User: What shape does this take?
Amino acid sequence: MSFLQRRGFLRGCGAMLALPGLEGFALATRPARRRLVFVYVPNGIFMPDWHLGEAGPLSTLPATLQPLASLSTEIQILSGLTHDKARANGDGPGDHARASAAFLTGAQPYKSPGDRIYVGESADQVAARTIGGETRLRSLEIGCEGGRRSGQCDSGYACVYSSSIAWANATTPLSKETRPRAVFDRLFRPPSSGTPAERARRQSVLDLVREDARALRAKLGVGDQQRVDEYLSCVREIERRIERSETATDATEEIAGDQRPEARPADYGEHIRLFNELIVLALAADATRVITFMHADEGSNRSYPFLEIPEGHHTLSHHGSDAAKIEKIRRINHWHSVQLAHLLQRLHETPDIAVDTGESRSLLDASMVVYGSGISDGNRHDHADLPILLAGRGGGSLHPGVHRLYPEETPATNLYLSLLERMGASVENLGDSTGRLSEL
Assistant: This one.
């Protein structure tokens, strides 16, 4: 076995830096590396700014999605998809808890304010269960709000329903990581020993793998050398940004097993963008192929002072047709689309190697990114005709650049069955699914 066939990562002094796809590795690895990413936004969308007319090519984008105009050939908007199990169905109020709980499960959550939680396995975890063993991390769950793990948060529903979209099984929600530093360390180095102060002074991960990187670089072709250099530069820049974002005002609790003091970024936009960059690094290095990202917990009442919006998001979503409130909701929705555009652009400009052929493509070409919410109209708590966008080409299996219009009440889980099949995780049913979507 050659040097390149044996080396898929760099090691040094406790660091483990996985490498991006390289031409020299291509024929020695598994074929068809597709990636699956789910990005969730809370409280629905102002749907008049999302809706399109007839099905067909995306010649123009609606107002909320204008930030994605330069990527219109890489996305498709899917209208008509519904989450029936986010509706009350006899359980009374609690639409926000049900919206997030049902988003990837298609199952009706059991209404309980305590520990008796029950919903279903989520689509991301079906994929992770099938292909997770092929990567160092089965899946990655991240978000910008920690949420509460106990107690009641929405009309008699346990809080965990509002803060989780990833469920390993019907009774096991997966906690999301909210600290960029913790995600970075999980990707590139194992937990270390020593005091918090000693860990706070740890060297850059690049310093730890410097000798290994120098030896590897000498054996690479010019194209792969450039790819590795760009990748390592990106890793270091993200390290620096994380360091800058860790302000004393946002210091977080100590975590068992890794007592290093860490912080969540005080700047919400930087928080999302750092996670976007970490998603790109994780997928590029094939550390995982399955990721869920909640911009905020369902029902979040976060304010947006940087948009001159001091009111809470959830409060504004119940606008009651008030023009001033609607304008603020439109700006929040547009801002979230800007963050999505940042992620998709980074995936689009990051090269990936099709390991079965050695052909270079973008990470977005290899990925399937679902963006949306479990609520359509936040004012009315609708769960039909959801705002769902699908980006990427799924390794050539998807055909973006169109608006697809499905019959009313088509389960959103039908979309997930279609994507799982492309991930090699083919299952017959997921939640309330009735079949696969005929076109994507």
